[in-house]
């Protein structure tokens, strides 16, 4: 038995190399399977955080073999080794530690914390993977500067919106009320920060007075960051003439007429007056402030009455065309229509306001427009011309028939008694009156 054992011992020693060969190949295969710094067994994600917030770094292991996990900062300093923190920075706090995960939080993140953080797994050979912390910086100041605090209608003003010290560079959008406008932006870089200024050129009108202009920021670090300024626009007066009496119906002789002038502008109009266009104001017309009163209408009052109003920006006016009808008139002629206020102001009233005023306040009380009177004149002239042409045609027809009836052969009395004459000489001798009286018996046809 002993001899067998001794024999078997040398045999085992002598055959050791062939027996270890499969084991060596197995170890080499296992080493080939283990990742060598390519991070196949480590998992992590990049972190994006707003400056001042908390960033959480997580190092996880797919198939844990109880190897040691550690976290390093961009300078290759160890932040955590397992659950121990060698780095003396209290902003780093352990959130979770196990054989498969090391999770660390970083509070009050600043730009200096941005960079690559490394997760290492102490295998043989060690594995490593990195995560990137990106720090976003919202704009610190957002302001709108207006070139002119108070603008006049028709002017083009310049507005500038500035978003300072942001990262990355911000995008600025403009709105006037609910309508988006287009501005022109410039970007300046200072160290790691960006300052963006957007310029907007805006032509303002009276409808823009009191409307907000909004500067809105598109940035991943903030939501709904905006600022606004209200436009202040000065404009010429808007003038409107309304008829108080008669409320409806015709303006007839002997009846009163009362007009009221209303003016709105910025600043509010301080000077308002009535006048008659192309003629003097009748003596019996009473003007009291914004009201005009004619107590007893007559046809001499026909004409255009104008209300003028002015302020610091300029002057505007509105016209009223008056046409006085007979007392027997019951229906307003169709050429006058419903009547419309005439506005000869350089800044015309909005169409909707004019039509509303004329339809709602004066459905039948206007004397008609200037165009309506011109239509009447053209109709009269056309009628006169038609009558003249018709008369001339009738005269031509009568003359033609007259000349046609008097056309033919006419005989004189010189040949009377010559019917029985034997020859021409005898006929002349026998003719009544004879040859001697031939000069006295000439007949003329006209």
The number of helices is: 5
User: What form results from the Cα inertia axes?
Assistant: elongated
Work out the helicity level.
10-25%
Strand order of the largest sheet: 2-9-8-4-5
The total beta strand count reads 25
Radius of gyration: 56 Å
What would the average pLDDT be, to the nearest integer? 79
**Percentage beta strand:** 35-45%
Measure the end-to-end span. Answer: 187 Å
The SS-based structural class is alpha+beta
Low-pLDDT parts are 1-39, 334-341, 346-376
Largest sheet: 5 strands, mixed
Description:
The chain has 446 residues and is α+β, with helices and mostly antiparallel strands. 19% of the residues lie in helices and 37% in strands. It contains five helices and 25 strands. The chain has helices at residues 2-14, 16-33, 351-361, 370-405, 424-430; strands at residues 42-43, 47-50, 55-61, 69-72, 78-81, 92-97, 101-106, 115-121, 127-136, 141-146, 151-152, 156-166, 171-176, 179-181, 184-190, 193-203, 212-219, 222-230, 233-245, 257-266, 271-276, 285-288, 291-294, 303-310, 315-322. A hairpin with a 3-residue loop joins strand 6 (92-97) and strand 7. The longest helix is centred in the C-terminal third of the chain and has 36 residues, at 370-405.
């Amino acid at each position: 038995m002993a001899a067998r054992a001794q024999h078997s011992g040398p045999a085992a020693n002598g055959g050791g190399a062939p027996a270890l060969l499969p084991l060596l190949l197995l170890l080499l295969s296992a080493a080939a399977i283990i990742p060598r710094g390519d991070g196949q067994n480590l998992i992590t994600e990049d972190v994006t955080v707003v400056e001042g917030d908390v960033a959480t770094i997580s190092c996880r292991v797919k198939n844990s073999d109880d190897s040691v996990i550690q976290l390093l900062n961009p300078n290759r300093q160890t932040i955590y080794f397992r659950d121990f923190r060698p780095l003396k920075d209290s902003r780093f706090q352990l959130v979770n530690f196990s054989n498969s995960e090391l999770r660390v939080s970083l509070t009050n993140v600043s730009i200096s914390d941005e960079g690559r953080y490394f997760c290492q797994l102490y295998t043989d050979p060690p594995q490593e993977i990195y995560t990137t912390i990106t720090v976003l910086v919202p704009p610190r100041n957002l302001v709108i500067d207006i070139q002119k605090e108070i603008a006049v209608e028709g002017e083009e003003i310049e507005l500038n919106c500035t978003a300072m010290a942001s990262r990355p560079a911000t995008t600025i959008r403009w709105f006037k009320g609910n309508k988006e406008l287009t501005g022109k932006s410039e970007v300046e870089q200072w160290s790691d920060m960006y300052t963006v200024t957007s310029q907007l050129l805006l032509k303002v009108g009276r409808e823009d007075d009191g409307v907000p202009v909004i500067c809105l920021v598109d940035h991943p670090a903030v939501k709904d960051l905006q600022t606004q300024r209200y436009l202040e626009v000065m404009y010429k007066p808007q003038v409107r003439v309304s008829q108080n009496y008669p409320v409806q119906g015709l303006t007839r002789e002997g009846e009163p007429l009362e007009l009221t002038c209303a003016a709105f502008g910025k600043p509010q109009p301080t000077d308002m007056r009535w006048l008659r266009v192309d003629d003097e104001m009748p003596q019996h017309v009473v003007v009291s402030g914004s009201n005009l009163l004619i107590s007893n209408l007559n046809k001499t009052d026909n004409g255009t009455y104008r209300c003028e109003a002015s302020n610091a920006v300029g002057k505007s006016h509105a016209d009223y065309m008056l046409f006085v009808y007979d007392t027997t008139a019951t229906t307003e002629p169709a050429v006058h229509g419903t009547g419309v206020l005439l506005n000869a102001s350089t800044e015309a009233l909005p169409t909707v306001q004019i039509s509303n005023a004329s339809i709602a306040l004066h459905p039948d009380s206007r004397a008609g427009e200037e165009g309506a009177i011109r239509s009447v004149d053209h109709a009269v002239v056309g009628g006169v011309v038609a009558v003249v042409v018709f008369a001339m045609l009738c005269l031509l027809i009568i003359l033609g028939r007259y000349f046609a009836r008097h056309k033919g052969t006419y005989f004189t009395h010189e040949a009377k008694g010559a019917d029985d004459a034997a020859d021409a000489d005898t006929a002349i001798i026998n003719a009544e009156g004879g040859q001697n009286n031939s000069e006295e018996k000439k007949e003329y046809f006209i």
